[in-house]
Every structure is written in C-alpha cells, then in structure tokens.
Amino acid sequence: MRFEGKVALVTGASRGIGKAIALALAKEGADIIVNYSRDDDKAREVVDLAIPFGIKAIMVKADVSNPSQVEEMERIVRKEFGRIDVIINSAGITFRHPLEEVPYEEWRRIIEVNLNGAFYVMRAFFKLMVDSGGGSIVNIASVAGHIPMVGSGAYSPSKAGLIMLTKLAALEWAKYGIRVNAVCPGSVETDMLREEFTEEQIKIKKKLIPLGRLGRTEDIAKLVLFLASEESSYITGESFIIDGGMTISYYLVESRLMREHGI
User: Fold this and answer.
1) Which conformational region is residue 57 in: left (phi greater than 0), alpha (psi within -120 to 50 degrees), or beta?
2) What is the helix (H) or strand (E) element at residue 31, kind and residue range?
3) Are 106 and 97 in contact (CB under 8 A)?
4) 26 touches 104 (CB < 8 A)
5) Per the record's keyword annotation, is Secreted included, yes or no (predicted)?
6) Residue 127 domain-assigned?
7) CATH number of the domain within which 33 lies
8) Which residue numbers are catalytic?
9) Which candidate, 172, 151, 169, places its Cα nearest to that of 161?
10) What is the pLDDT of residues 2-57, one digit of tens each?
11) Residue 67, SS3?
12) How far is residue 151's CA from residue 149's CA, in Å, rounded to a whole number?
C-alpha cells in the first residue's frame, strides 16, 4: 500500500487515463479526489469503484480552466482532508485543425484546459502541499509535446508548454519538498482517441507502433504511480515518454516503406 495515509487529487478523473490513475491510487491506499467538469454519473462511478478499496473518495466538479472553480476545489479538499500529497493533472482536450483554420476560441480553449488548467491547480494547491510537508505532482503531457502533431492545432503547443511548466515548477519548488514530473503518452486506447480517429486510422497507428498495439490506460497509471510514490524520490523535472517506441521509430518505418516498394 504505497499511498496509505496519502491524499491524491486527479483532475479529469471521470474517464480514460485519469480514471485509471484515480483507481490505481485508491487500490494502493490513497484517499482520492475525483475531479471532473461535466458528467456527474461517470465521476460517481469512479467514486463507487474506489470506495471498496477501503479509502475515502469524493467527487468535485470544477472546470480546471476556471481559476475561481479551482480555488473552490482547494477549499473543499482542505476542509475534507486537511492535506494534499499527490496531484495528477490529467484533464485535457483536443481538436483537430490545420493551423491556418484553427478558430481563435478553440486555440484559447485548448491552452486554457491543457496548460493553464494545470498551472491553476498547481498554484491553488501549492500552499496546502507545502503545509503537508511536500509531495509529488505528475502532469499528463503527451509525445505531441516533444514532436509536433500535424493538424492538431493548439494541442502540441499546449503539451510542450506543460512540459516546460513541469521543469520550471520542479526547480522552483524543490526546496519545499515538492517533486514535479511529466508523463508523455503516445496513442492510448481511450474514448477520446476513438472520438478523434476512425477505426481505419487506429489500425494504421497500431502498425506504426513498434510494440504493435495502442497503450492501455493501465500502462500510464503504473508509470504515474511510480512517479507519485517515494520509489522515485530522487526524480524531478523530467518528462517520460511512454509510447511503445513510436517516437524513435523513424528509421524502422522508413525501412518498412522501402521494402514495401522493393527498394
């Protein structure tokens, strides 16, 4: 029980990667705050799944892109738990447009949720984490923050910004005993992925991944728990790619294409 006696906040925890992380933390003994912005039923389902692990779990509705709602969430957590030990910034959105067609409001919305939202949460909970004796923050970025995802509009810039925010916070907050790291998934089997890509596109994605499959939410959760735990007590300011070998596979893909063309 790596997190027994610890309190963990997971944003965007009603589905996908955030849900898997929240349940993994609960299984390891953490009391959890399930943050979500829209679907009460899905958030309640995560709480209902977590409670049988013998922990305390609450759901808090808050749009992370709204600082006042984030500050109210901090007040709720302070009242209910009196401490915070782990923060997982998992809330994120994406839309697909080439840059010249990105609506201004869409650009602002992605930056607000993916980048500013993480900052608002980190800033709002900073004092409580310091008062708790320090802790661990893990930001869910993306391989798209390391390499540009063509046609993703603001998504790649937002995730690149999140990686740099991670590094900056790691340096500034190390003296408070707060570690900050980022996890950068590739293609992961989630509702959001299936909303964004067709089945045919997903088949192509799998062919381009050296390990031959999409990531699972559980794969990401395992890495996040390591970074959130004392097992990684000497790691901070790093961004960890978890993508089945996708980002290093240029020459592999090149050789396959050449063979297919008889070159």
Assistant:
1) beta
2) strand 31-36
3) yes
4) no
5) no
6) yes
7) 3.40.50.720
8) 155
9) 169
10) 999 999 999 999 999 999 999 999 999 999 999 999 999 999 999 999 999 999 99
11) helix
12) 6
In a domain, 25, yes or no: yes
**At 110, which helix (H) or strand (E)?**
helix 104-110
Query: What pLDDT is recorded for position 195?
Result: 82
Q: Helix 16-27 to helix 40-50 angle, to the nearest 10 degrees? A: 20
Q: Is 206 a member of any domain?
A: no
Quote the domain boundaries for residue 53: 7-194+215-246
Distances in Å between the Cα of 87 and the Cα atoms of 113, 193, 246 are 16, 24, 27
Kindly report the number of other CB atoms within 10 A of residue 54's CB atom: 11
- Please spell the DSSP secondary structure of 8-30, one letter per residue: EEETTTTSHHHHHHHHHHHHTT-
Distance between CA 7 and CA 234 in Å, rounded? 21
74-132 pLDDT tens trace: 999 999 999 999 999 999 999 989 999 999 999 999 999 999 999 999 999 999 999 99
- State the residue for tokens 């992961």: 188
239 forms beta bridges with 182
Residue 117 lies in a domain: yes
| Secondary structure of residue 205 in the 3-state scheme | helix
State both tokens at 204.
């192509």
In the structure, what pLDDT confidence band is assigned to residue 256 with cuts at 50, 70 and 90?
A: confident
Structural domain count of the chain = 1
Is residue 57 within 8 Å of residue 32, measured between CB atoms?
yes
